[in-house]
Design brief:
eleven-stranded mixed beta sheet, elongated
């Protein structure tokens, strides 16, 4: 006798009980077919995952903004600075003949209950890509086992990923432009000089940051706690008045740096403050930290800022779309 008793959590396949034996496996009271159960417990390393992700992430139609394109750098992040959960509980992979053919991970913040999606990545095409993405998503949800908000940051040419997250209920929040610079030139028209942040401007800095970036990935307090030798906050001031600030982070081991936030008070715009702050950031990263490449992400709607960066040797590299996906499935 054969009867339907469940559906596979991973692929949705019907699971039967035949002559008293369940034709599947259980994991934390969830049913899986034998194939998905094996994929759920697949062995994989940071190095092989980093190589797979970096290789696909070089292609615009697979590119995801949270991930890098250098295999060693990606592996280093996965080993040292990725997710509040263990690496294996933060990633799901599909393998064929011992090699990864698809992967999806999340940089999960257990306190905030948010995850930045690293993927889906897949060697498949069209509907097969979507099928593999769905399986990876269900496996990853099962591994993380927490409700929360998920973020997707996809190159506008990555139509498979945008189609997938939209099918899952994700909503596009904004479009962004990523620019890079490998050199800079001085052209500030403002006579003042940017300086290292001091506690005297703490209140004004918080006010400006919260005004310009009310829902940023780093709060003002987050930035202040992150400051160290390679993560710096610079300001422009006129007496006790804060005109603007720039916050930068350097990764000297990888030769990379990023301008995370730059803001100018509304009353001080048009006076060259932004350009002076940008050049201070570039000078610190290039000259003091020996960084080879600087990136910055800015709203696609902020055409004035984009032009300022281009006037200071930054080149547009990617156009990205940012999505939010609320997950209440667990």
């Amino acid at each position: 006798m054969k009867e339907v008793v469940a559906h596979c959590t991973g692929c949705g396949k019907i699971l039967y009980c035949k002559d008293g034996f369940f034709e599947g496996e259980l994991d934390r009271q969830k049913s899986f077919c034998f194939t998905c159960f094996e994929q759920l417990h697949e062995d994989f390393t940071e190095e092989e995952t980093g190589e797979f992700i970096s290789r696909l992430n070089r292609k615009p139609d697979q590119h995801i903004g949270y991930c890098g394109t250098n295999a060693k750098e990606v592996a280093d992040v996965l080993m040292q600075d990725f997710s509040d959960l263990s690496f294996n509980n933060s990633f799901a992979v599909l393998k064929e003949n011992g090699k990864i053919i698809a992967a999806l991970g999340a940089d999960w913040d257990s306190k905030e209950k948010t995850g930045e999606l690293w993927g889906p990545f897949s060697l498949a095409e069209d509907e097969k890509w979507q099928e593999q993405a769905d399986i990876l998503w269900r496996l990853l949800q099962h591994k993380i086992n927490q409700k929360g908000m998920w973020y997707g940051f996809y190159n506008e040419q990555n139509q498979q990923a945008e189609k997938w997250i939209s099918r899952m209920g994700g909503v596009k929040q904004s479009s962004e432009v990523i620019l890079h610079a490998s050199t800079y030139r001085s052209s500030s028209i403002y006579s003042g000089k940017a300086a290292v942040f001091t506690a005297a401007f703490k209140v004004e800095f918080k006010r400006l940051h919260n005004t310009v970036f009310p829902a940023a990935y780093f709060s003002a307090d987050d930035i202040l706690t992150r400051i160290n030798d390679s993560k710096r906050l610079f300001i422009m001031a006129d007496g006790e008045d804060l005109l603007g600030y720039v916050y930068v982070e350097a990764v000297p081991d990888h030769g990379e740096g990023a301008i995370e936030f730059i803001a100018v008070d509304s009353k001080s715009r048009g006076r060259g403050v932004g350009t002076a702050l940008l050049q201070k950031a570039a000078s610190f990263l290039f000259d003091e930290m020996n960084i080879k490449d600087i990136s910055i992400c800015v709203s696609a709607e902020n055409k004035a800022a984009i032009q300022m960066y281009k006037n200071n040797a930054f080149l547009e590299k990617h156009r990205m779309d940012f999505y939010k996906l609320k997950d209440d499935s667990n």
